[in-house]
Amino acid sequence: MSDDLILEIVTPEKVAFTGKVEEVTIPGTEGEFGVLRGHEALLTSVDIGELNFTMDGKKTYYAINTGFAEVTGEKVTVLIETAERSDSIDKDRALRAKQNAEARLAQIAKENVEYEKINLALTRAITRIRVSDK
What we know:
By secondary structure, the protein is α+β, with helices and mostly antiparallel strands. It is built from 2 helices and 10 strands, in the order E-E-E-E-E-E-E-E-E-E-H-H. The chain has helices at residues 91-107, 115-132, and strands at 5-10, 15-21, 23-28, 31-36, 42-46, 49-55, 58-64, 67-71, 75-80, 83-85. It is elongated.
């Protein structure tokens, strides 16, 4: 049995990351959770938010979208819609997306079928802005 914990972050377009990590923190739909080597097996849904992991004593941050995470004692597989590493986020674009979503939300009623979709876009933009600063 190895002491390694393998993390794999997969989107429909690519494998965003794969490698040995010391720990990983994931934004689950029931709350944020951390995983260390030897964690109990778990299958859970993932929410929009910040995923981070420690590798060689250094933290790396990703802004992620919804999906699923499978945890075993040796591996964490995160299957998500999108994943952007903090140093690759276009902060200006994220700020424009936030402003656009806020403006659109101000113009429609909460009962409008588009409201939730726009609110999720706002949440993604805010997450991208926050993660881009790390």
